[in-house]
Amino acid sequence: MKTANNVIRILAFQEIYMRILYSFLTRIAYVHMWVAQFFSKKMRQFIQGRIYTFETIEKHIDPKDKTIWFHCASLGEFEQGVPIMEAVRKEFADHKIVVSFFSPSGFEVKKNTPLADVVVYLPMDTRQNAARFVKTIHPSLVIFVKYEFWPNYLWALSKKKAPTILVSGLFRRDQAFFKWYGGFMRRALHRFEHIFVQDRVSKELLKQLQYTQVTISGDTRFDRVSHQIEQDNALDFMEQFKGNSLCVVFGSTWPEDEAVLLGAINRSESTVKYVIAPHKIEVSKIDAFRKKITKPSVLYSEKKGKDLSEYQVLIVDTVGLLTKIYSYGDIAFVGGAMGNTGLHNILEPATFGIPIIIGKNYSTFPEAQRLEQLAGLFSIHSSETYIKIEQKLVADQSFRDKTGMICGHFVNQNTGATAKVMEYLKDLKAAKRIK
Fold it and tell me: Rounded to whole angstroms, how far apart are CA atoms 265 and 260?
């Protein structure tokens, strides 16, 4: 018994020490980011946006309000959480919904979303910030999406005994939880009451950490995109631009992607039209890329008064239209994987039943690996390999249709994650765990 007590005391001391060290390093990181704001617009948004977090919450959340808190790292995680937010809004109509973001790319796009009553930046993960944030929003339920593990916030939530779950979780062996030095993060992970994971590999990895409150639900993004096909996706400018031509959509591209695609555009037949939707709208970079295009091109922002059918290349220099644009595509290239920024959402075009092409770096994206195995997706590593697969898809309609059908079926067969999460939440509600 004495030995056991000593072990407990040692572990408790380690926990306290690591929390102090973690909070100290978090503050150091914040200082570096504070300095970086003078050189980066995105970092300036990151720093300045957090100044108003508590003021915003106190303005919109009354101490008597019942709240549910969703946290998303960025825009991709928000889209992943949308189906659950919609379902939660209906099931818990008397609760206010708070959505927090870590990244400006999520907050700036979704700060006015009708799905939430309050949208804020998440304050840095210090003990003081976490305690104040949790106290201010006093959530009845907390839902983190996919990749967010903030130890001080999880500790503060466990003290308040607010049910806290992770949805669409995806775990890999190279994460800190599974390293010799990851004890502190492992203990933070155990503060989740339940974790919904995308695949069996993730569940097995968690089992190795003696974490057993796990459900394989799949990825809520399948539910999200499957609903898109039921929406009104009509865009007048796309009707005019595409006409009866075959259309290739380049979605969420980065410079590394565009460098590979440029040769294909300039060597293409006049019967093929291209839509380019860059991930980041930066005027100087868009202008520089456009100057390299030898085909007739037009920007979305200058379309007024123009006959778009006369152009072969349309560059979409705005946000919020890509999902609907995919509905006009016959082939889609999804950006992010030619460099190291991360592959963007391949399920958005897949739901419309069109073939998908991506770059070479996608080893951490299981949906891309699976769709490639099914022969609905193609990975390229150079301009030459891209041109080869595009030409085959353009020339062979049967091949194009078959490949697209595989993508559509892939989405349809993997829906249902939201229903599994909501079943669990309804059980918590019935047990009066969510008040």
Answer: 10
Q: Which two tokens stand for residue 327?
A: 């509905």
What is the residue type of 198?
Q
Q: Looking at domain 234-412, which CATH architecture does it have?
A: 3-Layer(aba) Sandwich (3.40)
Looking up tokens 């195995």 gives: 373
Helices 53-60 and 127-137, packing angle to 10 deg? 20
Angle at 408 between CA 405 and CA 411, to 5 degrees: 150
Domain segments of the chain: what residues? 48-218+416-430, 234-412
- CB-based contacts of 352: which residues, under 8 Å, 6+ apart? 229, 326, 327, 329, 408
Is the CATH number 3.20.20.70 carried by domain 48-218+416-430? no
Cα 307 to Cα 240: distance, rounded to the nearest angstrom: 8
165 burial type by CB count under 10 A (0-12 exposed, 13-18 middle, 19+ buried): buried
Neighbours of 331 (CB within 10 A): 24
Q: How far is 183 from 254, CA to CA, in rounded Å? A: 36
The single-letter code of the amino acid at 139 is P
21 pLDDT tier (thresholds 50, 70, 90): confident
Question: Which of residues 75 and 142 earns the better pLDDT score?
Answer: 142
- Asked if residue 331 has pLDDT above 50, the reply is yes
d(C-alpha 138, C-alpha 136), whole Å? 6
pTM of the model: 0.85
**Amino acid in the structure at residue 263:** G
- Determine contact, residues 165/196, Cβ cutoff 8 Å: yes
Per-residue pLDDT tens digits for 229-275: 888 999 999 999 999 999 999 999 999 999 999 999 999 988 899 99
* pLDDT on residue 130: 94
| Helices (runs of H) and strands (runs of E) counted in the chain | 19, 14
Task: Reply yes or no on whether the pLDDT at 330 is more than 90.
Answer: yes
Q: At residue 3, what are phi and psi to the nearest 5 degrees? A: -60, -45
